[in-house]
């Protein structure tokens, strides 16, 4: 009784949460997952029971990364608040059985529904949509076996009112597009493989009996993203055929993201000519073959553009300024620009230009002045070398973009020219980029705290100044211009890597330490930084960047040894908010010490390790999984035998699957011939967001979907 009375006295002297105003409590509750609010929190007291059912909390329900939700929780949630839900996002809930969508029929007032990545059959889709008469926005997957003839008349009536559709295709099909006669926004993701599991070549022809008349007359936004493969190209041409006959008058965003070569045809040329005559665009992205060598950009008209992507195009800086930026006029509206792989975009001409040639700083300055409101900028996968002219370094010019939230740069672009001139790379400070273990070099001792590094005057570097000027940057990618991941999409693992750019040889620990100035940094990617000697800068990032959620490190320092392992383990002890970790490094040893350090990341949900000749310790992995209860994805592609990998994978699944319904485990030899078959079974959410390496800055227009 004395203990109880003492606790009561403490509560009376302290602040009682329930004494806050309803407005403050609602704001606090908005950070709690909806399943917890409805199924747990509201049962604690009468006041919370009322607040948890407030319309501001039940109007929009987000389950897309609620990895603890299961079928029973969804059923109870729909039963309790189904009629109050107007927007429901279940994207990427791959672990839920297809019968889960049957409970969505209770959501009679749904206006927006995202089921991308969910198991869904034609019959279940028909039954569900037949009851959702108010639906206006829909996202679904179209898998093998989808049959549009199974859709009821009530379902088609609902689809006829849908104005926004996002459709991910895993089989050649129009899906539900022909039923959506009021489309204003159409997003298409083509993920069709060229071969079946049996090794048979697939055709891009649609199934017999499918309608070939999509209704585009009201279309305002058309977006298509293609995975590698010729079948995806064949199918997207069928979708474009109708557009080439009659271009919608209200079209203001036309975007096609296609890797590799996607040749222009007569139909696509007619489409582009029609667009040049009849529409004014606000967003544009085209395959490189459609832009290279053509005068298309000279004829297209723009209104108030907010997104441009010229990724992998041979567009020169002169054409960029003249035809796109229009001499600096009316580009204040541009918020996102992707020039990834656009190797000549900062040079006046593309002819006879070599990779090591200097950029034209006047072109970059025109870009910065004209597009002063840029929030997302991607300049990766190219050699952007600054000259020795004072004040014209790329980093100095980019520091004027005060609104930047995400930035991607090649490693060679951040080199301090003056410092390089004073101290060119020598055999003692350039790390050999080889896989051999025989090379021995002296390891320079680097200070581990920010104050000591300040004493080395690294603050005087242009990159340090750039990081200091972009205080609100949330996403940063520093990627070697010749870096390629060992895990391509539909091919065997790459066995050889290209050497880094000579200009990048001096980029190392001090540049990494400069990143620690980004207090609000949430996502960081570092790839192919050759002069990493100890990784000391990583510790500074762990200490200073407390909002860091995503970390991707690849090929840092010498490739024959993980020289930054000690610093990485120290860094991880401070990353309390880290959710996604991707490591790609040859000879990586995933042992007990590493996993013990990683266990400090209490919020970690997804782990991916890619390592040629890498090793793992099975007991350490099992202990890590037992200690980190939030981890639902564990992907390891190492140098271990198939037997070791399969045994560990089965042990993890058997031990933790019941408690973690979303658990996805793939442990497989990196150089095994069946790797591509294993990858095809990975849920698209994980594959696209973490397992496959790519630059994600300005990859899509901002707020394209949810």
Protein traits:
706 residues, alpha/beta, 20-stranded parallel β-sheet, disordered N terminus, LRR_dom_sf, F-box/LRR-repeat protein 18, F-box-like_dom_sf, FBXL18_F-box
Overview of the molecule:
- It comes from Calypte anna.
- InterPro entries: F-box-like_dom_sf (IPR036047), F-box_dom (IPR001810), FBXL18_F-box (IPR047948), FBXL18_LRR (IPR045627), LRR_dom_sf (IPR032675).
- Residues 14-61 form the F-box domain.
- It is a single chain.
- The chain is of the alpha/beta class.
- It has 4 domains: 19-119, no CATH class; 152-299, no CATH class; 304-387; 409-414 and 463-488 and 499-689, Leucine-rich repeat, LRR (right-handed beta-alpha superhelix), CATH 3.80.10.
- 30% of the residues lie in helices and 15% in strands.
- It is built from 26 helices and 22 strands.
- The protein has a 20-stranded parallel β-sheet, sandwiched between helices. Strands 18-20 form a two-stranded parallel ribbon.
- β7, α9 and β8 (253-257) form a beta-alpha-beta unit.
- α20 (536-544) packs parallel to α21 (565-572).
- The longest helix is centred in the middle third of the chain and has 16 residues, at 230-245.
């Amino acid at each position: 009784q004395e203990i109880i009375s003492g606790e009561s006295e403490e509560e009376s002297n302290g602040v009682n949460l329930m004494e806050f105003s309803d407005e403050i409590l609602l704001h606090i509750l908005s950070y709690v997952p909806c399943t917890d609010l409805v199924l747990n929190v509201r049962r604690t007291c009468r006041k919370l029971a009322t607040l948890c059912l407030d319309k501001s909390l039940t109007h929009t329900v987000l389950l897309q990364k609620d990895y603890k939700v299961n079928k029973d929780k969804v059923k109870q949630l729909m039963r309790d608040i189904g009629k109050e839900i107007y927007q429901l996002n279940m994207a990427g809930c791959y672990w839920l059985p297809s019968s889960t969508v049957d409970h969505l029929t209770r959501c009679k007032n749904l206006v927006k529904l995202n089921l991308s990545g969910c198991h869904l059959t034609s019959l279940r889709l028909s039954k569900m949509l037949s009851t959702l008469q108010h639906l206006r926005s829909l996202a679904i997957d179209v898998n093998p076996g989808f049959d549009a003839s199974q859709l009821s008349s009530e379902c088609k009536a609902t689809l006829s009112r849908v104005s926004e559709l996002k459709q991910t295709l895993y089989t050649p099909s129009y899906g539900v597009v022909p039923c959506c006669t009021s489309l204003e926004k159409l997003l298409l993701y083509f993920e069709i493989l060229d071969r079946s599991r049996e090794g048979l070549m697939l055709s891009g022809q649609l199934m017999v009996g499918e309608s070939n008349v999509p209704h585009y007359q009201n279309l305002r936004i058309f977006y298509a993203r293609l995975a590698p493969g010729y079948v995806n190209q064949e199918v997207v041409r069928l979708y474009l055929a109708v557009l080439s006959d009659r271009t919608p008058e209200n079209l203001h965003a036309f975007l096609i993201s296609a890797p590799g070569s996607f040749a222009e045809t007569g139909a696509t040329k007619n489409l582009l000519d029609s667009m040049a005559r009849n529409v004014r665009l606000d967003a544009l992205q085209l395959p490189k073959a459609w832009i290279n060598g053509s005068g298309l950009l000279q004829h297209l008209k723009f209104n108030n553009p907010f997104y441009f992507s010229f990724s992998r195009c041979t567009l020169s800086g002169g054409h960029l300024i003249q035809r796109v930026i229009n001499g600096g006029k009316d580009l204040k509206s541009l918020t996102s620009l992707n020039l990834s792989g656009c190797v000549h975009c900062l040079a006046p001409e593309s002819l006879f230009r070599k990779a090591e040639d200097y950029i034209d700083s006047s072109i970059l300055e025109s870009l910065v002045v004209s597009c002063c409101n840029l929030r997302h900028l991607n300049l990766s996968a190219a050699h952007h070398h600054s000259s020795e002219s004072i004040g014209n370094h790329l980093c100095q010019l980019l520091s004027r973009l005060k609104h930047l939230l995400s930035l991607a740069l090649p490693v060679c672009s951040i080199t301090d020219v003056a410092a390089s001139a004073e101290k060119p790379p020598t055999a003692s400070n350039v790390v050999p980029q080889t896989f051999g273990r025989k090379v021995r070099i002296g390891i320079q001792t680097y200070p581990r705290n920010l104050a000591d590094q300040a004493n080395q005057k690294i603050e005087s570097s242009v990159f340090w100044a750039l990081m200091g000027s972009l205080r609100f940057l949330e996403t940063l990618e520093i990627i070697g211009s010749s870096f390629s991941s060992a895990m391509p999409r539909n091919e065997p693992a790459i066995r050889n890597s290209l050497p880094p750019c000579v200009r990048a040889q001096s980029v190392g620990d001090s540049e990494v330490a400069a990143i620690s100035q980004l207090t609000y940094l949430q996502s960081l990617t570092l790839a192919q930084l050759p002069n990493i000697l100890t990784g000391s800068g990583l510790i500074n990032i762990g200490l200073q960047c407390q909002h860091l959620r995503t970390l991707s490190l690849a090929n840092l320092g010498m490739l024959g040894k993980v020289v930054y392992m000690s610093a990485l383990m120290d860094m991880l002890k401070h990353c309390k908010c880290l959710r996604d970790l991707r490591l790609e490094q040859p000879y990586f040893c995933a042992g007990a010490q590493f996993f013990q350090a990683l266990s400090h990341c209490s919020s970690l949900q997804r782990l991916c390790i890619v390592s040629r000749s890498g090793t793992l310790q099975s007991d350490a992995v099992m202990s890590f999984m037992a200690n980190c209860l939030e981890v639902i994805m564990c992907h390891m592609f190492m140098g271990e035998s198939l037997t070791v990998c399969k045994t560990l994978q089965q042990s993890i699944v058997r031990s933790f699957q019941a408690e973690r319904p979303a658990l996805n485990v793939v442990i497989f030899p990196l150089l095994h011939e069946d790797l591509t078959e294993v990858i095809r079974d990975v849920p698209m959410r994980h594959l696209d967001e973490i397992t496959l390496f790519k630059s994600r800055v300005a990859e899509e227009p901002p707020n394209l979907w949810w």
